[in-house]
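Next comes this protein.

***
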Amino acid sequence: MEYVVILERGEKSYGAYAPDLPGCVAVGKTREEAAHLIRQAIALHIAGLKRDGLPVPEPSSTIESVEV
């Protein structure tokens, strides 16, 4: 499966989250670290859902860049 991940730059770190997986977040000092950590967080999140017998949400978010 392929999930959309949002990476946001903060004042001193980067945050990342997956809109289709509520509560699945990560924070890193760099963009690369945040991207690496959110991949791990997604894998753990999905494993936890499966372990608890809960459904794994299908990816439904899409992205589009808009020039203004």
User: Anything to note?
Assistant: The chain is about 30% helix and 20% strand. Residues 37 and 43 are 10 Å apart (CA to CA). The two ends are 31 Å apart (CA to CA).
